Amino acid sequence: MKLRQSQTTKLSLSSTLRSWLPILQADLESIDDALEPFVKENPFIEVRSGYERQRKSFNTQNSSYTSDFIESLTLSHNSLYDTLKEQIVPPLFPTQKSQDIAHMIIEDIDDEGYFRGDIEFIAEMTGSDPENVEKIRQRFAYLEPLGVGAKDLKESFLFQLDDMDVDKELYSLVKDLINNFENIQEFSGCKRFEEAIKVIKKFSNPPAISYLSDSKQVIPDIFIIEGENGIEVMINDSFYPEVIVEIEGVDRDNEYVKQKIKNAKDLIDALDMRKATIKKIGLMILEYQYDFFYGGDIKPMKLKDLANDLERNPSTISRAIANKYLSCSRGVIPLKAFFSTAIDEDTSSASIKEYIKEIIKNEDRKKPISDNKILQLIEKKFGIKIVRRTITKYRKQLGIAGSSERKKLYLLQ
């Protein structure tokens, strides 16, 4: 009897989990799409979109706000990530495994279109080898927007060059200029140099520049709210779809009907599990990053630690936080931004990277700041000791060219 009960519980949980995982992975913009396969298989359920409810709600309160709101939804539905996901199909990605790897690569592409992930981690999570994962990433050279999925500026330009309709001689020269970008002026005496420069000027930099305005229009899963009783975590319930079970007038003793009703309940449970998991993640982020919400820096926080606390696989948590956002008094922030490696006990790599971006954003374009100078500024600000190659590594991870390379880019602009 106990064995039978255990098996029944396990089967019930597995059924809910099968529904839960794709729902957990989906962001609020695409959660209706994640439910669609379950709706098609079950004639007794109806899903009312959270977006539709919000449209009606806003429409009765403020028509001009509704118009802006619906426009923002339209923009976000045409986001970089949606565009990329639509292209993960055969023949470029012929197998389910290649598609799974490609989707994990997309999760590690930033708003500018650069790949910021770890090839070996993706290989481990997908049961593949790093060489195969890298080959699949290279296929992103054939996706829109051109240059997306590249690791840095040079690779992005090379991706875009392969799509240009130029003759072999010009192609070869442009490729040489890209590979030697820091010494581009040394090629000025070459035949067709000006023509090659015109080709380079046509490239998008960053590759997803046309999507940057869209990426700001997101719907957060989590709200961090400061109230009279302190700071608290709230889930964005208002955009969750509502699952309605319609069984009036049907024979509830029929085995087929019983199974479909059970499946409908599993789907409702899966939505509740998503809410509970996202809220737990929000609570843990609040606990780990409490000072950040009052003006401090992001502290070191590992995905593995969060997975252990939630008793989940790190790959599950990685998918749970992908393309999801948190809204607080400091703005709308990707959940992934809170997870980084520690430089020391109090300083995260994310804090260093943000400071590097700030330094370079405000630099003198005629005299770009060297990595050595950036190192000095960081050591002074954070009171830590690190080596210059760490600064160079972070700069490259951010897709930022070296000082001499940036000087050439500024001249091109």
Tell me what you see in this structure.
With 413 residues, this protein is an alpha+beta fold. Helix content is 55%, strand content 7%. The strands form 2 sheets. It has a 4-stranded mixed β-sheet. A hairpin with a 2-residue loop joins strand 2 (222-227) and strand 3 (230-235). Helix 6 packs across helix 7 (119-126) and helix 14 (303-310) crosses helix 15. The chain starts with a helix and ends with a helix. Residues 1-14 and 57-78 have low confidence and may be disordered.
Mean pLDDT over all positions: 80
Q: Indicate the overall shape.
A: globular
Q: Any idea how many domains?
A: 3
β-sheet strand percentage: 5-15%
- The secondary structure category is alpha+beta
Termini separation:
75 Å
The number of helical runs is 19
Largest beta sheet, briefly? 4 strands, mixed
Portion in helices = 40-55%
The side-by-side strand order for the widest beta sheet comes to 3-2-5-6
Can you tell me the residue ranges where pLDDT is under 50 for at least 5 consecutive residues? 1-14, 57-78
What Rg, in angstroms, do the CA atoms define?
Answer: 25 Å
| H/E topology pattern | HHEHHHHHHHHHHEEEHHHEEHHHH
